[in-house]
Amino acid sequence: MMMNDMLKKYNNSSLKDTSKDNEEYMTNSEKIKVINFDNLSKKGYSKMLRLKGQSFPFKTNDALYLDVENNKFIFIEFKNGSFSANEKNFKEKELPQLELKIIGSMYILQEITGKSFKELREITDYILVYNKEKNPHIFSAVDMGNYIVNLGTLNNKKITNPKEGISFGLEKFKGYCFQNVNTYSKEEFEEKFVKKIEKRM
């Protein structure tokens, strides 16, 4: 991982602060430090290009976690609102916004690090965190895995480790932009990411 001066400079926000969406925090973790990628992009990146007085043209993800131990970048996007239950509306209005943030973030990270897109794809993951209470219509692949486990068997074989799924049409970015993609509810995010990282600290 290329820890250049800009990444070091902006690696000072708490995960909690970057998780604020619709005036609510989606995690209370203040121990985990991340880069507020919106700030880095609008301030550090624009300054690097010597752009003044221009509106920032990119949409970007909320946070970037530098997993130095595993030599990985992990983008995190927090969505506290409700997604459209209508698949057509979702694909026309909400999915394009997520896609623009992904492409914009990867483009900027590539410029900042000097790494090729291929190099970044092999060491970068993506996590979308959503509020399940505001999206009861979402039955994710994780939910399906848990449902199968609760049934106890599938074709008379015990299922102990259901495969994590990817919701919101983001599966196409796995292998294309990122090594791994995950979509977690707030609760899943605490269990699968926050507690795991804090335990290592």
Question: Could you characterize the architecture of this molecule?
Answer:
With about 200 residues, this protein is of the alpha/beta class. It has one domain. It has helices spanning about 5-10, 15-20, 35-50, 85-115, 115-120, 140-150, 185-200, and strands spanning about 15, 35, 65, 70-80, 125-130, 155, 155-160, 180-185. The strands form two sheets. A six-stranded mixed β-sheet has the order 1-2-3-4-5-8. Strand 6 and strand 7 form a beta hairpin. The two termini are about 20 Å apart. This is NERD domain-containing protein.
Question: What key attributes describe this structure?
Answer:
two-stranded antiparallel ribbon; NERD domain-containing protein; alpha/beta; 8 strands
Strand order of the largest sheet: 1-2-3-4-5-8
- Please work out how many helical segments DSSP would assign: 7
Derived structural class? alpha/beta
Rg over CA atoms, rounded to whole Å, is 18 Å
- End-to-end gap: 19 Å
Q: What is the string of SSEs from the N terminus onward?
A: HEHEHEEHHEHEEEH
Instruction: Summarize model confidence as the mean pLDDT.
Output: 86
User: Uncertain regions: pLDDT < 50 for 5+ in a row?
Assistant: 158-162
Counting DSSP E segments of at least 2 residues, the number of strands comes to 8
Number of domains: 1
Main beta-sheet strand count, sense and barrel state: 6 strands, mixed
The amount of helix comes to: 25-40%
What is the 3D shape?
globular
- Beta-strand residue fraction: 15-25%
Protein name: NERD domain-containing protein
